[in-house]
Structure formats: C-alpha cells, structure tokens
Amino acid sequence: xxxxxLTRLVTQRMPFGKYEGRFIADLPGPYLNWFARHGFPRGELxxxxxxxxxxxxxxxxYLLEPLRGRS
Length: 71
Known about the structure:
Blueprint: H1 5-11, H2 29-38, H3 43-57
Helix pairs in contact: 2-3
C-alpha cells in the first residue's frame, strides 16, 4: 500500500458487476467478502478491493471519510 491507495478507494469506481459505478469505498461488506472467498481480480483493481475488504472487515471505513471529495 502506498499513500495514494486510500485516495483511490474513494475516487475509483467499480468497473463491472452488480455494483458497477460505485466507488470502491462504498461497496458493501458482503460483496467484498464474496471476493475474499472466491478470489480478487488480478491487478490494481484486485489489490484495491483486497485493501477495502481489510479496512471494512476491521471497522476502519471511517478513516476514509476525510478523503472524500479531496481528489
């Protein structure tokens, strides 16, 4: 994780699936859990989804609030 990863969570949108168009930071926990069980996509998107899963799982989503709207 580098210092821009957290900003990417609140600015990058999900490119496919049921939640296409939502910011990664706004994806629901059960959706992130599904990826954790079945495998995250390869590349940058998968890395960000895995990071968001860890943040959500550990109850740290509030840390992203100050970053919203600061792109």
